[in-house]
Write a structure and sequence with these properties.
Layout lengths: L1 H9 L4 E4 L4 E5 L4 H11 L8 E3 L3 H7 L4 H10 L4 E5 L17 E4 L4 H10 L2 E5 L11 H8 L5 E2 L11 E4 L6 E4 L8
Parallel strand pairs: 1-7, 3-5, 4-8
Antiparallel strand pairs: 1-2, 2-6, 3-6, 4-5, 8-9
Length: 187
């Protein structure tokens, strides 16, 4: 099941995957054509960048600057409902992160299938498996009803739902909460 997804991603295709919040669709964040296809399928505006899911803090450090208080938060809350906005250390495709601000959102999902895929592929640009403005999907069946054969492969599974991640900007001298969620800055 993971092997088919890894192959499709390597060929620049879009795959569906369960996460710890919603069912998502993802692509290689370094493949401009794949990211463009992701945006086209979703109908996502170009001024609304996507974030990156990774399997571990180590993968996250390979692509973004995570140190000090941000690293402590990541160690405490990953995998889980914490998205860190950081300065990228690598060049990713347009629309992955904010190219103007030079930032990218990174998260380690708390879902075993997502982690298994991310360990095999490395980072993925992932967004919820719905058309922009549409209802979020929670399973491969629901996502298939939205995208059909436009998504190359759907990893079977269901997302448990739950509260969206806390989003924290870690690019400045102080951490700033951009979206409230289950994780707080309190020790």
């Amino acid at each position: 099941m993971i092997d088919r997804a890894v192959q499709a991603l390597g060929e620049g295709q879009v795959v569906g995957l369960p996460t710890d919040t919603v069912y998502g669709i993802g692509v290689d964040p370094f493949d401009l054509d794949a990211v463009a296809l992701l945006f086209e399928l979703k109908g996502r505006p170009a001024d609304k960048p996507v974030g990156v899911l990774v399997a571990s803090l180590e993968q996250a450090i390979d692509i973004g600057e995570i140190g000090g208080a941000a690293r402590i938060l990541a160690e405490r809350h990953w995998p889980g409902a914490l998205t860190l906005i950081v300065t990228p250390q690598v060049v990713m495709a347009d629309w992955v992160g904010d190219q103007v601000l030079r930032t990218v959102g990174i998260r380690v999902p708390d879902h075993p299938t997502a982690i298994e895929l991310l360990e095999a592929t490395g980072p993925l640009a992932v967004t919820s498996a719905n058309r922009s403005g549409g209802a979020e999907t929670m399973s491969d069946e629901e996502a298939r009803a939205v995208f059909g054969d436009d998504v190359s492969y759907y990893i079977p599974g269901r997302a448990p739902g739950g509260e969206a991640s806390t989003v924290i900007d870690a690019t400045g001298a102080e951490l700033t909460v951009l979206r409230e969620g289950p994780v707080t800055l309190a020790p």
